[in-house]
TrEMBL record:
The lineage of its organism: Bacteria, Pseudomonadati, Pseudomonadota, Betaproteobacteria, Burkholderiales. InterPro entries: Flavin_Rdtase-like_dom, NADH-dep_flavin_reductase, Split_barrel_FMN-bd. Signal peptide: none annotated. This is Flavin reductase family protein. SMART domains: Flavin_Reduct. It comes from Pigmentiphaga soli. Keywords: Oxidoreductase. The keyword 4Fe-4S does not apply. It holds the Pfam family Flavin_Reduct.
């Protein structure tokens, strides 16, 4: 039996999805010209411990889609709570997102954002087109983490909850 037609619109769906808090990452690689490129991604998740697999999704219409699909490897930098401006910068269109950004090369020379909460260097293992997005599955070759608190996205905004528990909006 096929799925029933949704009884909601895309706005209601987006609002419901927003109730699930996510971390904020920058997925990055090197272009054909050897220059780093990347974008903000909040659809990051673990898949498997053995082998170590992660996933994230990207709109098929994204300007970075073809370059990431061609990349054999990429990094995922989990942003720290104090890296909100980087999240916004890598979500914006048109600018050289890496201009002036502090990053260091991974073992493969791929960009890892400095002072991030965690990072993963991945082999671009597989990709599945589903709806208007593609799901990328990465096999993690290297990873590390710090004690930094992660940046969180929730209910359509960045969750800037200080230690006192009172939420501030970005």
């Amino acid at each position: 039996m096929p799925a029933a037609r949704p009884d909601f619109d895309s706005s209601a769906f987006r609002s419901a999805l927003g109730r699930f808090a996510t971390g904020v990452t920058i997925v990055a690689s090197l272009g054909d010209d050897g220059r780093p490129f990347g974008l903000t991604v909040s659809s990051f998740n673990s898949v498997s411990l053995e082998p170590p697999l992660v996933l994230w999704s990207l709109s098929l219409a994204s300007g970075s889609f073809e370059a990431l699909a061609r990349s054999s490897h990429y990094t995922v930098s989990v942003l720290a709570a104090d890296q909100l401006e980087l999240a916004k910068r890598f979500a914006a269109r048109g600018a050289d997102r890496f201009a002036g950004v502090r990053w260091r090369p991974s073992a493969r020379g791929l960009p890892i954002i400095e002072d991030c909460a965690a990072w993963f260097e991945c082999y671009n293992r597989s990709r599945y087109a589903e709806g208007d997005h593609a799901i990328f599955v990465g096999e993690v070759e290297r990873c590390a983490h710090t004690q930094a608190m992660p940046l969180v996205f929730h209910a359509g905004d960045f969750d800037l909850t200080p230690r006192d528990g009172r939420r501030r909006s970005a």
